[in-house]
Amino acid sequence: MKRRAITILTVAVLAAAWLLAALPAGAGLWRITVREAATAAGERVLLSEIAEPSGEFPADAWAVLGATPLWYAPEAVGRVAVIPSAKVMEGLRYYLRDAPVEYALPNQLTMRRGGRVVSGQELRAMAVETLTPKIEALGAEAKLLSVSAPDHLFADDNASVGIEVAEVQPGRTTFRYVVTGPGARILQQAPAEAVVEHFGRVPVAIKNILPKDGAAMEQIAYVYERRNLAGIKGRVFEPGDGQWRARKGVGTGQVLMADDMEPMPLIVRGDQVKLIYQGRAVRLTMLAEAMTDGAPGGKITVKNNKFAKEITGLVKDKTTVVVQ
């Protein structure tokens, strides 16, 4: 073990000496940037596995220095270790000794034995590729504003990384990265989020609309405005060709939602209707007053004008209620 350590230090010293010889006179120090996450293929961590050269670092010089063995990797394959920045610097100075380089370090280095690192940049690119067709399907004025992805993911060499998203909607959309191994076995899942902007034309009340107000169906009660749908929760009201009225009050400037509206009943409370008693051998007709609203074919309560008795019947048309 001692002889092995001496050999490693000798390699590092020779690499440093080679770099010193290659450094032009009067030139500044070469720069090495340490990654936030890295994997080690073998027992020892190599410099090239955790760092990359910056600026005009000569390729042949990096080939020599990058092969320098450093500290021990996590013992078991798949094991992860988190190394503080100070410890990383201490190890680099020990193993690289007099190499003419300066270091740019993250707050910590996350090391894994075996496998590969999928960077945050790669993860965001995957999200953009997956989400873009779904966002385009929302409409011409929908676009992806941002993606919040993990800084990195570790994956085995034979594992794949994919994205699962249930539904893309305006505003914040959650999804997840899934690391899958052989046999479709899920090895890891990581949550993520995307922000989607989507503008569209929606009906907006231009005056207060009261509950049971049939004027909500009239153009004098609302206008269409271009709004960001990200701030609208629920399904927007679509008038179509039907007759509608307000189920609950809607204030001026508010978007008309589907839950705010209901089909306009054929018979409205207070209407005078023709009440028909339809029996097996008898048929009676008299006037009655609607005590509740009634939709086509639906139940309605009416009061017989002659006997002041409330009866439940079925709406036949806008003037007729049938009791069988």
From TrEMBL:
Superkingdom as given in the UniProt entry: Bacteria
Pfam families: ChapFlgA
One record GO biological process: bacterial-type flagellum assembly
Annotated InterPro entries: Flagellar_FlgA, SAF_FlgA
Keywords tagged on the record: Cell projection, Cilium, Flagellum
Signal peptide positions on this chain: none
The keyword Transmembrane helix appears for this protein: no
Residues annotated as domain Flagella basal body P-ring formation protein FlgA SAF: 223-323
Name assigned to this protein: Flagella basal body P-ring formation protein FlgA
Upper taxonomic lineage: Bacteria, Pseudomonadati, Thermodesulfobacteriota, Desulfovibrionia, Desulfovibrionales
This protein's encoding gene: flgA
